[in-house]
Structure formats: structure tokens, C-alpha cells
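User: Sequence in, structure out. Go.
Assistant: Echoing your sequence, followed by the C-alpha cells.
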Amino acid sequence: MPEADALLTGLDPEQREVALALRGPVSVVAGAGTGKTRAITHRMAYGVATGVYKPTEVLAVTFTTKAANEMRVRLRDLGAGGVQARTFHSAALRQARYFWPHVYGGEFPEVTQSKFGLVAEAMRRLNQRADTPLLRDLSSEIEWAKVSNIAPTAYAAAAGPARREVADLDPGQVANVLAVYEEVKRDRGRIDMEDILLITAAILADDERIAATVRQQYRWFVVDEFQDVNPLQSTLLDLWLGGRDDICVVGDPRQTIYSFAGASPQILASFARRHEGAQRIELVRNDRSSPQVVAAANAVFSRAGSTDGVRLQSQQEPGDPVSYIGYPDELAEANAVASEIALLHRRGVPYREMAILFRINAQSEAFEEALGEHGIPYTMRGATGFFNRPEVRQAVTLLRGSARGGEGESNLVDDVRAILSAMGHTDQPPTGAGAVRDRWESLHAIVSMATDLAEADPQAGMTAMVADLDRRVEQAHAPAADGVTLATLHSAKGLEWDAVFCVGMHEGMMPSVHADTPAMVEEERRLFYVGVTRARHDLMISWAAARKPGGRGNRQATRFLDPLLPANHSARQVSSQARQRKVAKCRVCNTVLAVADRKLGRCADCPATYDENLYETLRSWRKEQATEQGKPAYVIFTDATLQSIAEAKPTDVDALARVPGIGPSKLEAYAESVLEMVSEAR
């Protein structure tokens, strides 16, 4: 069988073992970056090439259309184009549509693409109001209940033990919504995506002839990303098998991060108990990441007491050490990350090969602004840019209207809170996570901006607030396809980049403040692991001791960093160092600066350390540029940046690029003029 044997060429020993394990049950525990898709596609192709499999009798199921398409392409290239590769829903829908007329008669119901309209109708029937975030959270809760096989009548009893929370609704109210939602669907003759699985499972369970037909069609099963299987999908898979064991599952229990959607690491871990005599094969050779990154990934679980998953072995050449850095505040963290990205780009790393990963979407704003300040393009994945989010756009519109009408101006923070209260915003966050909490976080970020502005300038009013927001909007320029990726850790799963920055990794954010049980903390650990394993070469993990400059630096680095930090350090110690670094001191006399003098960088009565004549020349030039371009002066260059130029007196573009606050776009726009003024001042 020379053609079949050729399919084994190039596989590592463990991948080859997978390819040769043609008869089930087989459990493949595949660590991050170990080539699981390569292993299972070669297994199917080898089975077809050797005649063990008839291609039309093989069904490979996965979770996304993209993954299914990729699998089909690979199988076709390997000579096994007849193998069916589908998502759970796609495979179930084909069967449900085909057998529906035989079981129920008539046409198959219309599948609704979005639950929002149906949920909104259910809320109206209950005489309750719901905005878009609440509709989104209720839709997610409906999905969780249905894939977990929990009927509306059983929801209230199950919600407490499962730690389910939907905004400020109690479990009984949510149960009512679930029940009325089902009524609305029936009235409209609709079904949802979960119903597709439920209908298919019901048909197979109730009609042995149909079940026998399906089982005759498909004899061999492969399930990708098995750690993400929910109870309903597991039930359907068992019905497809019908007691047979010709199944191969592949997954990584250390990447189970969707328990909120019904997944459980125990489904993969218990495979051997449910399928007696199952062969377990571990893929451990990581071809993605450097030994330094792999060592960090392995250390995440070194103290967790977990026996699930595998210990990775890097196959790459040694690279740079992983960076663990605590910053005094979030502004410093964001600016440092942007500066490091600019440096990597100058060294040849494309922007598209870098990513900033955070726990929640609300953390993106500081990094969007910092990237904009440095002229670095970026793209948001799985979320909308901060100033493009509906609630933020609405808030900015209301604030702008207040400024034009001359309203408020008594106390900026109180005025902003009053305006946002019209949108339902409160000082206290809603309970639980989800879209409602995300919306609150976005609006709360605007309140925080107002607080920062009021502290920096006690005379600032709504006009100044709107000007500051406009500046931020301008700096957070339109996303670019060939830019740095900004993404949550959840949306980064399955992706990889040359350089990854895991930011905001402090206690309360990682693990989340909502993770108040051991099981929830372990899910956060797995989420952190996913972030770490996205990096190929460069990995920086950072956190901020305080939210804003001068703030109380009482945050500690995430506990997950304890085994990762260099020897003789702990997360608490490094956080302490970050708190120490936040103290601003005069660059002349080294005394602690008053708040009013921090922007100046020295005491008001200390002599300037920069060329004051050059500084004034730069200020005059900046004013001309601002007038000509119709921009605020500080958008051209801040006073601090001009002072740094007047102090450093750079002689060329490279030296100017090292001045804080000067990114590629500003170099391109202003380098020639600035260097000319510096030269004349010498």
C-alpha cells in the first residue's frame, strides 16, 4: 500500500499512532499547538486509502462552519474527499429535514436565525421590558437550558446550583421567560438552533427504523474539539452510535472554556469510563511555540493538582524569555504595550502577527487609545471597538447634546452620571456576567473618564469632556484589516500570533471577580492557559497596580502567575514593585511630586532640565499645526512630549522615535519639521 503509507510521512510519532488507530474507541488528548487536525484528517484519509473505511460512511463533526470547511479541504487534498465533515447542527439538520415528513408530516418548520425577536415577544407577553443586552443574555440562557436538557419547569431549581444569573432577574422570572418563549415559537411555527438537535435526537430515540437507517449510513465517527461538547450534543452522538464504539474523539480538557454554554471538561475526561477499552493517545509535541512559551503554559497547571491534559514539549528553537511586568496604572500599561508593539514592528514583525488579549471587552478602550496615539493600526475580533459600541455611541451623543445646550457645568462627574442614568446606568454593577454587565462596564468607563478629567482639571465642564471624548475617538481610528488584533481571551481560542500581549492580568479580572467557586476558578485558569498558548515567539503578561495614574495601587497580579514569575518573586512582590514604581518624583530634586506638578515632571520651583527656548519654539509650531488642521493642540503633541524633545534634542529619526508619545504616524507627519527646529536650537 505505497499510497496509503505515504500518508504517514511527515507525521510525528504520536500523530502517526493516531493515524494507525483506525478502529475505535479512541481518545486523542491533544495539547495546544500539537497538530490535532493534521492527525485526525490523516487518520481518516489513511482509513479510506487502506480500504478500512468507505468514505461515505465516515462522519466528522466539529463546532464551526470554518473548522468543517478546513477539514473538508484537507481531506480532499489527502484523497478522502467523500468523507462528510459537518458541524453538529448541519449534520442534524440534514437528518431532521429528511425524516420530518415521514414522522410528523407537512413541511419542516422555519429555523429562526436569531432568538432576539422571539425573546422580545415573550417579554412583552409577560409585561416586561428588555433592552438589547438583556435580550442577548436571555437568549444565551435559553441556549444553556436547552443544551443542558433542562426544561423551563426545572430551570428555577437548576439555576442556583449551576450558579446561573441573568442580570437582576430571579430564577423564577427567567423560567417564565423560557416557558413563554417556547409558546411564542409554537405560535409562529418556528424552531431555533437547539431545536434542530432536540428534534433529531427525538426522532432517533422514538423510531428504531429511522435510527437503523442513520446508523447504516454512518459507521465511523470522528469528533473534533470534544472538550466543547455539551450534554445535548453528547446525547445525539450516542444515538448516532447506537451502542457501537467506532468513534475517535480529540480535544484538550485544558482548553474547556465554554462551561457557561454547557460544555464540561468531564465529558472528555470520562470518555474512557463510558467506552470500555478505549485507546488513549496523547499529542504532546508543540510545533507552534518557543520552549519559553511552552514552559510558561505548562507551569499554569503545575500547582493546580489536575491530572487531565498533557505536558507540552516544544519543537521550536529557543526564543526570548517571557516577560512578566507590573505597571503602576492602566495608562502606563497601555502605553508600554503600544511602544513594545511599535518596536517589534520596526524589527520586522507584521502588525497582523501581534495580538493584545484581555479578559473582557471593556478593557479594550485604553489600548485602542494607546495604539491610536502611536499610529498603530488594529482590528477588533469578536467585539466592536469601544467608541463603536451602541451604548457608547448613544452616551457620547447625549453628552454632546448636553454640552451644546449648556446644561450641567456644576459638577462634571455628577452631570455625566445624571445623563447616563437616563440610559439606565447605575453606580452599582448588575449581578452576574454577560451582555448586561458588558454594557455597564462600557458606560462606567465613561464615568471613569469624567472622574479622571475632573481630577486633572477641577474647572473642566461638559464641553471639555466632549472634547476629550472626541480626542479619544480620533485616536481610536478606524480598525484596519492588516493591524494588531484586539480580542478577548475567549475569542482568541483557535488562533495564534508571533507576539501576544496578555494584559490586565490582575486579581479580580483574572480570575474574574465572578469566579467564586473552585470549579469557576479552574475555568479561569484554563482561559489564562488559552491566552498563553496563542503566542509563537514573544509573550508579555502584564497588569496594573492601579486603574489610573496616582491611584491607590492595591491590585495584585493574578494568582496564576505565581508559578510563572522568576525565582525569588511572587505575584504579591511584583505587584508591590509596581506600586513603588508609580510614585512620581521630580527629575531635578528627586522629591515626590505634587499632583499638579506631575505633568511637568519637576517641582514648579525647580529649574527646567530641558531647553526652554526650544520648548517654546515647539509650542508655537504646534499651535500653528493645530490651527491649520483644526485639531486640539495636544492631539499633535502633548506638553510632556514636547518637553522630552526639548530635553533629549534628538538628532535623527531613530532618536526621535525613542521619545515617549511619538509613534510611526507622527514620525511620518512631523519628524522633518521637529528635527529642523532641534537643529536650529543647537
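User: And one key feature?
Assistant: The two ends are 79 Å apart (CA to CA).
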